[in-house]
Amino acid sequence: MLIKLKKALDVKSSEITKKEVFLNRRKFIQSAAAVSGTALLPTFVNESFSATGKKFRNLHKTKYGEAEKLTTFKAITTYNNFYEFGTGKTDPAQNADTLKPHPWTIEVAGHAEKSGVFNYEDLIKPHRLEERIYRMRCVEAWSMVIPWIGVSLADIIKRLEPTSKAKYVAFETLVDKEQMPAQNQQILPWPYVEGLRMDEAMNPLAFMAVGLYGNYLPSQNGAPMRLIVPWKYGFKGIKSIVRINFRETQPNTTWNDLQANEYGFYANVNPAVHHPRWRQDMERRLPQTLFSRQHIETQLFNGYGEQVAHLYNGMDLARNF
Q1: Is the alpha carbon torsion for 89, 141, 267, 199 positive or negative?
Q2: What are φ and ψ of residue 75, in 5° steps?
Q3: Got the DSSP string for 63-115?
Q4: Reduced to 3 states, what is the DSSP secondary structure of residue 300?
Q5: Under a CB-based contact definition with an 8 Å cutoff, are residues 71 and 207 in contact?
Q6: Beta strand 130-137 pairing with 60-61
Q7: CA-CA distance, 284 to 263, in Å (whole number)?
Q8: Where are the chain's structural domains?
Q9: Whose CA is closest to 317, among 260, 254, 274, 259?
Q10: Which DSSP helix (H) or strand (E) runs through 160?
């Protein structure tokens, strides 16, 4: 079915990605073990994704995180939080083959000059495609180093021309119980929603990821596009985005609505502010194996304080967590 755009950006859609890149994903074979209470990463991989060899062209290599040791592709794509496909860490990789990330549209609403329904390509393809290696920290005290592919969130926002009333930007995940089978259960109030203050969204570190390891984003990692805010805990990184809304007031966010004493709106990585059920001053760098376990000290703002600390001048970071 054709979708008539309310307002078009001043670029044409690029060539549509072939369906076989995303569809007909094979099932996975799971193999997991637990040693001394620490679960080892499973050995299955998303074969249809890795076997295509489909790579982004005209990719700009940046200096972000170039000295970091990367987490393996297998670990990144088989150990995930994506409750729309199940609550277990391996559930998304097993179940996300039902997601159809192309064709894809995003609704832009609220205080912006360019609102309406846009093709995914119209939002992404006009911008410089970059590789950025970011440290990613989960509130559950594990972390990874991921080579994301995507575009600056600020560049996308600028092209949508938010008005002076836009103080926040809110994001919304797809709701489709066939494509996302765990939405048939009342695990969370669907859709999953998240948001940023406008100055956070415009910070140079904020990123809209469309791939990783030079390839297209796997469904279990939030295809076709997801938010990356590397100085915040992972639950801020909303996946499979279908709506962007420019707001004058602070938006509701899923985990803050559910458990405000555990999950703040800001969710800045802060080793001095512990989760009520576990500490936050140490983290497990994945993958963990029987013979290789790495525990490191957590850094304020996940180590990106030089770039983002000024956003929170004068704020009580224990109260505004």
Answers
A1: negative
A2: -65, -45
A3: -TTTTSPPPPHHHHHHS---GGG-SSTTHHHHHGGG---SS-EEEEEESBSS-
A4: helix
A5: no
A6: parallel
A7: 20
A8: 20-312
A9: 274
A10: helix 153-160
Instruction: Report the 10 Å Cβ neighbour count for 226.
Output: 22
Query: Which structure tokens are listed for 305?
Result: 């304080």
- 158-216 pLDDT, tens digit each: 999 999 999 999 999 999 999 999 999 999 999 999 999 999 999 999 999 999 999 99
User: Percent of the chain, pLDDT > 70?
Assistant: 83
Q: Which two tokens stand for residue 161?
A: 């021309």
Rounded distance, CA 194 to CA 103, Å?
23
Give the tokens for residue 227: 């938010």
Would residue 318 be called left, alpha or beta, if left means φ above 0 and alpha means ψ between -120 and 50 degrees?
A: alpha
* Contact call for residues 173 and 91 (beta carbons, < 8 A): no
Q: What is the mean pLDDT of residues 17-45?
A: 34
Q: Which residue type sits at 135?
A: R
- Which tokens hold the place of 29? 């074979």
The domain 20-312: what is its CATH number?
Answer: 3.90.420.10
Rg (CA), the chain: 19
Pairwise CA distance, residues 52 & 54, whole Å: 5
**Nearest-angstrom CA–CA distance, 241 and 104:** 9
**Tokens 């072939």 label which residue?**
18
Cα gap 317→132, rounded to integer Å = 27
Q: Quick check: 130 and 151 in contact, CB under 8 A?
A: yes
Q: Are strands 116-119 and 105-110 parallel, antiparallel or unpaired?
A: antiparallel
Q: Which of 171, 305, 189, 314 is nearest to 246 (CA)?
A: 171
The pTM score is 0.84
